Amino acid sequence: MTKLNIGIIGCGIGGLAAAALLAKQGHNISMFDQFSNPAPVGSGLMVQPVGLEVLSQIGVADRAISLGSKIGSMAGYEFPSNRKVLNVSYGKDFGLAIHRASLFDVLYQQVLTTDCKIHPNAKVAGSELHDDKRTIILDNGKQHGPFDLVIDASGVNSPLSPLKAEALNYGALWGTVDWPENTKMRQDQLMQRYRMASTMAGILPIGILPNGTHQKATIFWSIRQNDYQSWKEQPIEEWKSAVTNLWPEFAPFLTQITSHDDLTMARYKHGNLWNTYEPALVFIGDAAHCASPQLGQGANMALLDALALSKMLQKLPIKKALPAYQKLRRNHVALYQLMSWALTPMYQSDSKIMPWLRNWILAPLSNIPPFPWLLTRTGCGNLIRPIRR
Predict the structure, then answer these.
(1) d(CA 281, CA 159)
(2) The pTM of the whole model exceeds 0.85
(3) What is the C-alpha to C-alpha distance for residues 231 and 372, in angstroms, rounded to an integer?
(4) CA-based torsion, 386, 149, 152, 22: positive or negative
(5) Which residue blocks in the chain are alpha helix, DSSP H?
(6) Is 180 strand, coil or helix?
(7) CA distance 90 to 88
(8) Distance from chain centroid for Cα 37
(9) Residue 146 near residue 130, CB atoms below 8 Å
(10) CA–CA distance, 164 with 158 (Å, rounded to integer)
(11) How confident is the model over 273-299, as pLDDT tens digits?
């Protein structure tokens, strides 16, 4: 295997995973991040069994599990009937609910044990190709390289990716709070409650933060992207009242929310690159494909991309490794993109038909074999092989 000089754009989950895996193979890695101190953006997320396998290969799965919460099932209830319309079990497996800061720290600390060079305050504006090598160009005009390969892991707003993602009508408000002592909510379950598909509230136990001791929860509330400004203009107590009217058991989680600034607006997009590489340039994670988080696969897709790419670079020269990486991941990405596109309107939309299908078709089927098995495999992320042979 030839030792490569690799530049990675973005210190997110996918970028850090790629850096850890490729540095382990002996490549020279340089990472570029626009922040002065690389840090996570977002709240809680789910690492599915397929993602945990990647963390295991990196060597950080045990540390991640010690910080997160093991999730054995997902449950959703319709308002006002309180009828269970989402019922997914992981069976013998589990998903790991974890704060993005915790997962970031696990991967970041692993990268710091390698010879990887991290460049902060480095906002990438573009790249240039010369003689099969790429130079990274920053927004201040400074150039780095040349690199044998540049990995773009900078997300859906990447300055290099040709991805044209479509903005979804709905996003969500996310917040992190201490797990209340006066609640009977389970700490091994993702819980949601819906009114049709236009209103959704959720609670996700996410374990502890790095160097923390208090158990945490991520709370989220579905909202139209165009309604965010009007939400900020209404008194926060009015919103809290609306949430507790939908779900009275949610109230203990809201006592720590005192202003709009305690919640972050997440805006979702949907899109997929057919070609995930160019000469000496490859896209992973949201720079290659993005979707709503309804299936809980975002971080896992980035981890799987990083693993597949590292496997091919270990076996093949770059010109063959990049198309091979694309082939390994194409079917899995396409299937979950399609499922996200089809299922998201059942939980986040203004449709009257889609929640009816959810309640009266999908929910009953979820109790009839083989559909429980299919739902389990879907949640685990291995409905089909994540990385083709």
Answers:
(1) 13
(2) yes
(3) 38
(4) positive
(5) 13-24, 49-58, 61-67, 100-112, 228-233, 236-246, 251-254, 298-315, 318-343, 353-357, 363-365, 371-380
(6) coil
(7) 7
(8) 21
(9) yes
(10) 10
(11) 999 999 999 999 999 999 999 889 999
